[in-house]
Structures are given as structure tokens and as C-alpha cells.
Amino acid sequence: MSSNKESYLIVDGYNVIGANPDIHWNADTLENARLRLIRDLSEYQSMTGRKVFVVFDAHRSAGAQVTTELEQITVIYTKHGETADECIERLVRDYRSPHRRIYVATSDYLEQKLIFGQGAYRMSSRELIEDIKSLKGKINKRMTKNRKKNLLVDRLSPDMKKKLENWRRKK
Fold first, then answer.
1. What is the pLDDT of residues 120-143, one digit of tens each?
2. Could you tell me the pTM of the whole model?
3. In angstroms, rounded to a whole number, what is the distance separating the alpha carbons of residues 94 and 65?
């Protein structure tokens, strides 16, 4: 990724949720699956610096498009009669710029071809899932490392440790 270009990631939410039944965000309910994906994408955005949009297909529901911010990412529920693919294609057109790289995460082959033709980069749902797992591993490793560094005893001088140990033992 070029340092002088901003980077966007547009995610076909239900496509990613359904890509791997073993992944932890597949939950008992669709709402829980959406919330877990949103939380994971928020962490992904924090770690990568990519602005993340996640699109959920609501074309069978009555009503207008709903766009909201959850967990620092943009969440879009499509309007009545609009598919997630149509919304993703519109977002790619709207945000396309020489100063921006746009990635689209979907495993829909036709959709990948269409967005690629519009100048976006394609990423399969499984690739995104693997990226998220990898970043979560790095976060956990960093947290474990930082947890070990944050013990007060590790920051005390040997003399102070000895004094406290003698005091504890009432010597």
C-alpha cells in the first residue's frame, strides 16, 4: 500500500459472514453475527488504517438506505430494491480517486469482475477473514507482551525489591 494514498475497504457483509462457518463471528442469530463482524472490522480498520465500509443487503425490506457509524466504521443497510452489490458498485464509483485505493471484500465472482473493471482491488471474503485472524493474533501477542511489561515489580530496582520482600516477611 502506497503511503501517499488513502485506502478504503468496502465489505459485502453477508458474503463475509457466510464465507466460513468455522469463524467465530457466525453466531446463533444474524444480528450477533453482524455485530461481531462490525467489531472485527473496527479492529481491522485500527490496525490497517483503511477506512472501512460494510454493506448489508436489505433490498427485501421496505424503506430507505440506512447509513450509520458503529465501532468507528460506516455500516450501510441498502434501500428497498437495491442489492448489496449495487450499493458496493455505487460506493466504488463515488469514492474513486487517483489519491485513493479502494478494496472490495466479496467472494461473488461477478461482483469482483465488475468492481475490478471500475478500478477497485478485489479481495475474497476468505482473504479478509485470514487478514482479520492474523491481525487478531498480532493484537493478542502485543497485549500479552505489554501485560508482562506492566507489572510494578518489573520496574523496581533490586534494592527496592529486597526492601519490600523483607518488609513482607517482617524482617
1. 999 999 999 999 999 888 888 877
2. 0.74
3. 16
